Amino acid sequence: MLRFDHVTKQFGGFKAVDDVSFTVRPGIITAVIGPNGAGKSTLVNMAAGSYRVSTGRILIDDVELQALPKHKIAHAGLSRTYQNIRLFDGMSVMKNLEVALVPPSIGSLVSDTFGFGGRREAEERRERCFEVLKTLGLAPFAERQAGSLAYGQQKLVELARAIVPKPRVLLLDEPAAGLNHGETEQLKQHILALRQPDLAMVLIEHDMKLIMSISDTIIVMNRGQLLAEGSPADIRANIEVQEAYLGQPGAIRDIEAAARGRRNRVRLREGEGLTWHQP
Ligand SMILES: Nc1ncnc2c1ncn2[C@@H]1O[C@H](COP(=O)(O)OP(=O)(O)OP(=O)(O)O)[C@@H](O)[C@H]1O
């Protein structure tokens, strides 16, 4: 379980994430949506240790992540993919995956990737990587240079690299960005297949069709604040959220004013299970 507990991130005087609290449960897919600049990637970057939290806590179960270095966060069970592909272009697909299995105590990715540990450990790592490549249909490309693959295949290699360490929390930052219809459909099937009882998955996406078809719960962010959370049906049914997402400022102001007049969390639509959060 991943928990954001009153998390704020300031860049100078600007709050990119402003007192956000929510929980990502295992066994389901939690989507985070919102207009450009809403603070979605900043949440991921803080959880993964790329950005320091200004105030608040981020936890996997009882382990606080916000003060840990990146490799310890990975060791605690968190994996991520990036909005922009970050593979080692000149290395084989297999090596790109093996890098993710380097024991944190070693310190040097290179020494491990190119031969650290006993033959047995190396063999086990390769077996695990190959197993994931097979699952994602990438086995034929195992020894190809990552940079030589098509864009859609590289996005899948990123996903594979995030999966090999068997994470407990998987953060996917716009995995469908730049994919065509067929590739997006394929990605959808892979993400659905990843849904397991012991994995908490966060999906940041702008592709609303994909979001609505695979998410179990949706968090709506706007201007650094958590605006609403609910099931896809709740979110779809709520015209105000749609307007906010489509960027109509009048609707956002109305929603903010409505929420400000209430204490803490309020349910505006009791029957629908949509929870509003006070900005
Ligand atoms: N390193 C940084 N320094 C200064 N400002 C930043 C930094 N990273 C993000 N921001 C700002 O924080 C705000 C939130 O950015 P973020 O990337 O989290 O939004 P997002 O919801 O992921 O947007 P998008 O959907 O466009 O990726 C933006 O205004 C952005 O310019």
From TrEMBL:
Gene3D superfamilies documented for this protein: P-loop containing nucleotide triphosphate hydrolases
SMART domains named in the record: AAA
The organism's place on the tree of life at top rank: Bacteria
CDD domains: ABC_Mj1267_LivG_branched
ABC transporter domain span: 2-248
A Pfam family this chain is assigned to: ABC_tran
Keywords noted in UniProt: ATP-binding, Nucleotide-binding, Transport
Molecular function per GO: ATP binding
Classification via InterPro entries: AAA+_ATPase, ABC_AA/LPS_Transport, ABC_transporter-like_ATP-bd, ABC_transporter-like_CS, BCA_ABC_TP_C, P-loop_NTPase
Similarity comment: family membership: Belongs to the ABC transporter superfamily.
Protein name: ABC transporter ATP-binding protein
Species name: Ancylobacter crimeensis
Classification of source organism: Bacteria, Pseudomonadati, Pseudomonadota, Alphaproteobacteria, Hyphomicrobiales
